[in-house]
Amino acid sequence: MKKAFVTGGAGFIGSQLAEELIKLDYEVHIIDNLSSGYRKFIPDGALFHHLDICSADAKDVIVREKPDVVFHLAAQADVTRSISNPQYDAEINIIGTINMLEACREAGRSKFIFSSTSAVYGNLNKSNISIEDPALPISYYGLSKFAAENYIRIYHEIYNLPITILRYGNVYGPRQTPKGEGGVVAVFLNRLKNKQPLTLHGDGRQTRDFIYVGDVVKANLAAIYNGNGQTLHVSTGKPTSIQEVADILKELHYADIDIIYSNSRPGDIEHSCLNNEHTIHVLEWLPEMDMKSGLKAAYNAINNDLF
Ligand code: NAD
């Protein structure tokens, strides 16, 4: 039986990845300290290690179990928190990642698949960002993820550790909470549920590359066997404005929604869309979910408490 570790497996994306791995007959281990994840998200059949990724115990369990693959998703993923507490952000996202890399190096046989982010690019303001574009993060979160990516690259170069780095667009779907990165969909859905108006910062014309959680899970699974040594975008390659998201939700909600336009926030990125052509080729993967169906799935999940 193949063995996989999912750090952050009690979180939004990690728990749904763990679920799919179990369906594929993997022995699935989850390392999570439940700082933003939930015990109820951990799928039946997964072996749960309630540990911090920075701890010696988290490293030891990987060294002992010698998994075939480690999906490293555990992170401090709150951009605002990274600004107010850069030290904490760096400890989890950089030092924690190094601890997991050391574990894989010692285990000697694990592929390391890392969840990174479009936040590494900062405010490039390009309609179509390619992987060759410069990384110029404008938050400590983007910076710590980029630093982690570089540690991973160097572990690959020095120790030949098999790795794939996946830079996600804005992930959305069931189980997303407003706390994490790319939380605008979750923020809107929570406000609708609580019968509150939606607040759009700026004029609502800012665009994001929204990718459905199920498509992100599939990209991770494809990276088990493909994309060694590569950094890849996991995205749709299509920009969607925040206003469009609000409009689709309006349609789904069957009731009037008030929209309040407020000032744009300092540090907010105007446009972010990631070219995915190389990923489609390398991972033999395609994003399948259209925005309307994906938003419907997320809307139904939150309103029917389907977690
Ligand atoms: P999430 O907050 O739902 O999941 C993160 C999980 O990591 C949580 O279960 C949390 O309890 C756990 N965790 C945090 N710190 C930990 C620590 N020190 N030790 C052990 N566990 C710890 O976030 P998510 O949206 O599922 O994000 C997963 C990954 O994807 C993160 O690495 C994030 O940076 C990346 N990412 C997410 C998005 C997005 O739009 N959601 C976009 C780009 C990248």
UniProtKB/TrEMBL annotation:
Residues covered by the NAD-dependent epimerase/dehydratase domain: 5-226
Pfam families in the record: Epimerase
Top-rank taxon, per record: Bacteria
Family statement drawn from the similarity comment of this UniProt entry: Belongs to the NAD(P)-dependent epimerase/dehydratase family.
Name of the protein: NAD-dependent epimerase/dehydratase family protein
